Amino acid sequence: MSTSDSPLAATQRLIQVNYRKYDGTLHWNLRMRRLGEDEHGIWLGLPADSVMRKGHNPEVPVPEAHVLLFPREAWWTATFNAAPRATEIYCDITTPPRWPSEDEVTMVDLDLDVLLKRAAPAPILVDEDEFAEHQVRYGYPADVVAAAEESARWLMGAIARAEGPFDGVHKCWLAMVGGSA
Fold it and tell me: How far apart are CA 18 and CA 26, in angstroms?
């Protein structure tokens, strides 16, 4: 774990996180604290009892702390939730995260999600029906479809084998926002 900022400054900087749909519509969005970065990417955190929004709708409460990993040049993001949230790991298949400024990260949510329920033996792939529907509605190009499907396969294996960022490294980042795995 390292950060180019001092630990205090890193936990003070707020980053605007904007997930969008393929047509550019604002999807999930929230402000998170920049915790730092490591070989897996940039880590942001949110303490318990925070909020997020879906589009421009009213705030949605987030009772448990969580951290979000934005890997470099990968077609996914990973959320690691503190206990007692039932879902321990939630990965959104997205376009590679882009940083239009140092205080904003944005990506397109491509519908597929890979998640690991707490104490479950293996991850599961969800929202395949939405992915199929949106391929038609939004006209996903073939290379986007292929990258999304490949990312989902890779995540299923990496999470099942507890490899890379899924080997427990998230616990030190989660502790920085008062959460425990």
Answer: 7
Answer for the pair 21, 6: CB distance below 8 angstroms, yes or no. no
- The pLDDT assigned to 2 comes to 45
Read off the pTM: 0.91
Determine contact, residues 78/93, Cβ cutoff 8 Å. no
Element containing residue 156 per DSSP (H, E): helix 142-160
Give CA–CA dist 148/27, Å, rounded. Answer: 18
In 144-156, which positions are buried (b, 16+ CB within 10 angstroms) versus exposed (e)? beebbbebbebbb
d(CA 165, CA 181): 14
For 39-103, list the strands marked E by DSSP: 41-46, 50-54, 60-62, 66-70, 76-81, 87-94, 98-101
Contact 174, 45 (CB under 8 A): yes
Task: Please state the length of the chain.
Answer: 181
Q: Output the CA angle 26-13-50, nearest 5 degrees.
A: 60
Say how many C-beta atoms besides its own lie within 10 A of residue 47's C-beta: 16
pLDDT band at 150 (very low <50, low <70, confident <90, very high): very high
Asked if the model's pLDDT at residue 3 lies above 50, the reply is no
What pLDDT score was predicted for residue 93? 98
